[in-house]
Specification:
Helix content is 28%, strand content 28%. By secondary structure, it is α+β, with helices and mostly antiparallel strands. The chain has a domain of 112 residues: 2-Layer Sandwich (Alpha-Beta Plaits), CATH 3.30.70.640. This is Cyclic pyranopterin monophosphate synthase.
């Protein structure tokens, strides 16, 4: 069985060779949170923010980022995603937004980094668009919630911080 590592024989960094891995359906689900003042969240949800539709802009930014993860994260493979979905919803306590991304493909390597990049960039987009009205926003809780497919099978977080 080949060793999947980012180090070559001499210890130098390289992209993992996944040639010998089987193609399979793979999916990853990640989340992030943007904590903010209740008034900022109200403006976003009501579509009354001075910079326009924050939710739509962040959703598109997250999808675009997932597609370009290999350009942002060193040694990531360029993947042909078959589906990327980004959702933004208000927290149950009204303290901010929960951002989730699901990425899918049929391939030789997983899509965890694509889902994590999608939620990260969507959260940064919310921050960028809202910083003039709420500089105290906090991006937090970026984590993988679930991963399916590949050699390691199915993994699901059971509580915050599982890994």
């Amino acid at each position: 069985m080949p060793m999947f590592t980012h180090l070559d024989e001499s210890g130098a960094a390289r992209m993992v060779d996944v040639t010998g891995k089987d193609v399979s359906e793979r999916e990853a689900h990640a989340e992030a949170r943007v904590l903010m003042q209740p008034e900022t969240l109200r403006m976003i949800i009501a579509g009354e923010h001075p910079k326009g539709d924050i939710l739509a802009t962040a959703r598109i930014a997250g999808i675009m980022a997932a597609k370009r993860t290999h350009e942002l994260i060193p040694l990531c493979h360029a993947l042909n995603l078959t589906s990327t979905r980004v959702t933004l919803n208000g927290c149950e306590r009204g303290t901010g937004l929960v951002i989730e991304a699901r990425c899918k493909l049929a391939g030789r390597t997983g899509v965890e980094m694509e889902a994590l990049t999608a939620v990260s960039v969507a959260a940064l987009t919310v921050y960028d668009m809202c910083k003039a009205v709420d500089r105290g926003m906090e991006i937090t809780g970026i984590r993988l919630l679930e991963k399916k497919g590949g050699r390691s099978g199915h993994w699901h977080a059971t509580s915050p911080g599982d890994g």
